[in-house]
Design goal:
- This protein has four helices and no strands.
- By secondary structure, it is mainly α.
- It has a domain of about 60 residues.
- The longest helix has 22 residues.
Amino acid sequence: MAEKVMEKNSEKISENKKGYFGTGQLISIILCVFLGMILSIVERVLRGQIIGALVALLLFPIAWIVDLATLVIKGDIVVLANP
């Protein structure tokens, strides 16, 4: 019973985590425009995607454009950020 409750709570948390640090789509787009490179790397590290963070560091203009596009289209960072 407790396992089901914990699983349900973790699903809710993962559903709510969108954009940078779980903020909404509009806030994430604004943050991406001003602090895109730094937040792109930090968010990938927090999601456990170290390789994605290194790629974002090396190719930061491309990663910034891709992050901005996916935030506008899907409301979340999906390229090199999802496990």
